[in-house]
Write a structure and sequence with these properties.
The chain is of the alpha+beta class. Helices cover 29% and strands 33% of the residues. The protein contains 4 helices and 7 strands. The chain has a 7-stranded mixed sheet with strand order 1-2-3-4-5-7-6, with helices on both faces. The two termini are 29 Å apart.
């Protein structure tokens, strides 16, 4: 039975969580430029990220299936990052369930929207986020790039 849990101080599976993120983001290697910031993650800075932000994991029993990190950006939105689902668990609605947790958190914090960034090359992600109610709100370039490298998408919460 799948459940979503907020990562608390008792969470100690940072190596596993990092492996999940790297496995889930592996399809981007050689596709996006610059490479994913996931490559700069370590178990230690992932733990720091979880303490500084609000993080959730999707679990099936003891198996880590997905995660999502959220950072409040008052007064406008809740930023959603590092949303991932294990490749062998994709297509089962886990990403959507994780985003529902982010929506609940945004409402709890009285933030009117969710915001995320996705790479310009990942058009399937743009479509999936569009299906989930996000609309493109900006185009951005990573430092040192003179072309669009990512798009920002926002979902206004009703």
């Amino acid at each position: 039975m799948m459940e979503i849990k907020r990562i608390g101080d008792d969470f100690d599976r940072w190596h596993e969580l990092l492996a999940l993120i790297m496995t889930s983001f592996a399809y981007m290697d050689g596709v996006i430029d610059p490479p994913s910031s996931a490559h700069r993650l370590t178990p230690d800075n992932l733990a720091e990220k979880a303490r500084a932000e609000v993080a959730f994991v999707a679990l099936d029993g003891n198996e880590l299936l997905g995660c999502l990190f959220c950072r409040p950006e008052p007064p406008s939105c809740l930023y959603v990052g590092k949303l991932c689902v294990s490749p062998n668990a994709q297509g089962k609605g886990i990403g959507k369930i994780l985003l529902a947790q982010a929506e609940a958190l945004a409402r709890e914090l009285a933030l009117p929207a969710l915001r995320l960034e996705t790479r310009i090359e990942l058009v399937a992600n743009h479509a999936k986020f569009g299906d989930w109610g996000f609309v493109k709100t900006a185009e951005n370039a990573h430092e040192g790039y003179d072309r669009t490298t990512s798009i920002e998408m926002t979902k206004i919460l009703g």
